[in-house]
Write a structure and sequence with these properties.
- 2 copies of one chain form a homodimer.
- By secondary structure, chain A is an alpha+beta fold.
- Chain A is built from 6 helices and 9 strands, in the order βββαβαββαβααββα.
- Helices cover 28% and strands 24% of the residues of chain A.
- In chain A, a hairpin with a 4-residue loop joins strand 1 and strand 2.
- The interface between A and B is large, with 38 and 39 residues.
- The structure holds a DNA duplex (30 and 30 nucleotides).
Chain lengths: 247, 247
Amino acid sequence: MSGQITNKPLVNPHVSVDCVIFGFDGKDLQVLIIARDEKFKDLAPSLPGDLIREDEDLDEAANRVLFELTGIKDIFLEQFRAFGAPDRISNPADAEWVRAVRSEPDARVITIGYFALVRTDYVHPSPSSFAKKAVWVPIKEVGTLAFDHNRILQEGRKALRKKLQSRPLGMVLLPKKFTLRALQELYEAILGKTLDKRNFRRKILKSGILEPLEIKEKGVPYKPARYYQFNKVAYENFPENEFYFVN
Amino acid sequence: MSGQITNKPLVNPHVSVDCVIFGFDGKDLQVLIIARDEKFKDLAPSLPGDLIREDEDLDEAANRVLFELTGIKDIFLEQFRAFGAPDRISNPADAEWVRAVRSEPDARVITIGYFALVRTDYVHPSPSSFAKKAVWVPIKEVGTLAFDHNRILQEGRKALRKKLQSRPLGMVLLPKKFTLRALQELYEAILGKTLDKRNFRRKILKSGILEPLEIKEKGVPYKPARYYQFNKVAYENFPENEFYFVN
DNA sequence: AAAGTTAGTGTAATTGATACACTTAGTCAA
DNA sequence: TTGACTAAGTGTATCAATTACACTAACTTT
């Protein structure tokens, strides 16, 4: 970074994608976070991301990051914002890491934020074949991240909330069969507020995206709940901009 | 562009902003389009945009483009999406222009799309002091644009529609005093559908963002309409996510 | 003074949102 | 086996918002 104000166009920036990957374990909303490897283990962890490559579109790059991390393709993935402040990487510890890892450490990095949704039970982060150590962290417990990743995470969360207001997102975050309580907890985790049980059920069931199953919970010390599954057709044809949750 | 598939990170891209600048003339939704100058006058026109500069944040770059074009600062401006397909500039005519104008013509260009709202009567595009020729074009009459600018325009329009569903946008697009009919026509132009007059009026007036004036239209060959103005305080405190227009 | 044009207004029916409490079906421990 | 515990599952009444719909009023022009 030059530190000088100039009128010169930026000629050698790097462009990256950073992914806010949400998961749900039945209780808390989680995020995939990358721990630093041995050499840099004192540094703050980061969101998964990478520089985009030649001949690679932005969406492709984000999909690649996700695939390398989780082994999953064709995931729900959506761009939500670009971040390009000149001082994105100005924190001294971050800068040190960048110098060690990047061939052009002084290059400015513009990053495109994506958010993704995956089932935590489908993703076993960090199989030994992958260099990076990814861990699920409940979103409430995420501490200080590298660069401006806390901000990116926050914006990603906002984008997720907004998305939930116009689409039912459960299908990619819940197992095939699930109880209405689980779905409600997912909504509550995303929206960050509690919902009325009866009103929630009425609204969801009326929308027609769920099919009741004949199976019930087993072994619970209370009245067992019925399982439901998504009706794929109804789910996909769900009209944009319905389902607007306030309570 | 190399034409080869590689795993190399993209090291020398350019980053630009492109702005979809909406205006309203009381009847049609318009967009500011840049005509090519003499030397390239056969080329398709484009959206206003520029490479971002060293030490310049993305929002700053977009604001600069807008200011250079219109002389207005502090405009309503919002980022809506990044575009980064490797073949964005592949059209032969576009490529020729890029070769003539840019110092690194083969560089890939990632662009960040912004949309902005201005009053057409505040903007006299292309004062002689500005090199670029900008013209207002009704959005329905925009023809083929350079690069992927038709797509950017389309996405910008979608973003505008979406925004209108959660915020009343009239204040930046209408003159100080305006009739309810003008406001309704603005909404109809943005949403692309007709609205019921009585329901529209009831909804807008109940929201409290308008103040009636004692002035009426003059010289019209029909019952003159009352003028209104926005109540700035109510307008700015308007709660996100109300005002959800379906009809 | 008649024709033409848009402004301005009200209501009834339907749908959606909200607030709220008890019974049921299971497990577990005494 | 019975009582304690827990979450599932259900209905209703009130209020607010949405929709569909048609006539009179005010002004200009001829």
